[in-house]
Write a structure and sequence with these properties.
alpha/beta
Length: about 350
């Protein structure tokens, strides 16, 4: 029987949507769900080592957030906001979101106020994104331009009336283990924002090994489910890469648990294991179009660290599935857990608090 999307809806008080990060990354709160004991307990994220043990394997998304929000001006003086999504045939052509959008026809031009780039709209897609050609100085790249002049692409529910927090956001909307050479994400893998170098060091000394993978987090992660049923929703596609060492650890984890940091890591892992590939001898590159919702079972994730997600989101569906793999009981359970988190005044969404499911 199809699952009604309204099963994944809930009332999120606007004041619980975190607008700023915690004073310290690991000062956020941690709600711990024990699936076997069917209990919920409340802690701080710095307490995470209490719930992991020697031999556990931590899989984390090392994608760096590209400062993808560019400001431009038309020849007439009108402002254009350009949001880089993905490079196309070459570094000079990018798929972009534009404001004021389709009011700008194909052929329209705009440029950075400081001359860092000039741009022309080549065409529009049916989905409302634009193919844009950029002209930049010889020897430069659009990634370099974006890193110099771009703004961090915060999600729409984080409100910034001015640029007073620009530098803070550039640091805190990025994990401490993000690799600068992998500036491929237009949204942060937010479950990883809570980790500090000190906490990672404590876990390593405890015998918890960390493995990196890369998933190119896209804007689709913020898109709510608009269809009446879950099954009717067409999920976005995202590219990912899993190095050989991480592949081998997933396939032969030993006695430890495979702990995914965030839903992006889960999506990569489950897509990889569903392909039943030969023994790994090279990095696995693929595109995930995997929509995880109850009653799906999981092949490669034994525990999950995640944030609190938006109503009617694909991420909420994934967490509900993980609470009760192979069943639909996780739907009612996630509703109860979120109701308790709201009563306890947890902070929600990207800059919010975290949950550990073991």
């Amino acid at each position: 029987m199809p699952l009604a999307t309204q099963l994944f809806d809930y009332d999120l008080p606007p004041e619980l949507v975190a607008q700023t990060p915690a004073a310290r990354r690991d000062a956020s709160r941690l709600l711990v769900v024990d699936r076997k004991a069917h209990t919920v307990s409340h802690h701080g994220f710095a307490d995470l080592p209490r719930f992991l043990r020697a031999g556990d394997l931590l899989f984390r998304n090392n994608a760096a957030v590209l400062p993808a929000r560019l400001e431009g001006r038309r020849p007439s003086g009108g402002r254009v906001e350009c949001f880089l999504l993905a490079p196309q045939a070459d570094d000079r052509h990018w798929q972009c979101l534009l404001r004021p959008g389709r009011k700008l026809p194909a052929g329209a031009r705009f440029a950075a106020p400081d001359g860092a780039f000039a741009a022309q709209i080549v065409s529009w897609s049916e989905e409302g994104t634009a193919l844009v050609h950029f002209s930049i100085p010889a020897g430069d790249s659009m990634l370099q331009v974006a890193r110099r002049v771009g703004g961090i692409p915060l999600p729409p529910y984080i409100l910034r009336p001015d640029a007073s927090r620009r530098e803070e956001d550039r640091e805190r909307y990025q994990t401490v283990y993000a690799e600068a050479g992998r500036s491929v994400a237009v949204a942060a893998p937010t479950a990883g924002l809570h980790f500090t170098p000190e906490l990672l060091g404590a876990l390593e000394r405890q015998g918890v090994r960390a493995f990196d993978l890369t998933l190119h987090v896209g804007l689709g992660t913020f898109r709510p489910i608009a269809s009446e049923t879950i099954e009717a929703h067409v999920i976005h596609r995202e590219c990912y890469e899993i190095p050989v060492a991480a592949q081998r650890a997933l396939l032969a984890p030993g006695s430890g648990r495979r702990v995914a940091v965030g839903t992006t890591s889960v999506r990569s892992i489950e897509d990889f294991l569903a392909r039943e590939l030969p023994a790994p001898d090279r990095p696995h590159l693929a595109e995930a179009s995997l929509f995880i919702y109850p009653p799906r079972a999981f092949r490669g994730v034994d525990a999950l660290i995640t944030n609190f997600h938006q109503p009617r989101s694909t991420l909420l569906c994934l967490v509900a599935a993980f609470l009760a793999p192979g069943e639909t009981a996780g739907i009612e359970w996630i509703r109860g857990i979120y109701a308790e988190a709201i009563r306890e005044r947890y902070r929600f969404l990207s800059y919010g608090d975290a949950m550990l499911i073991v």
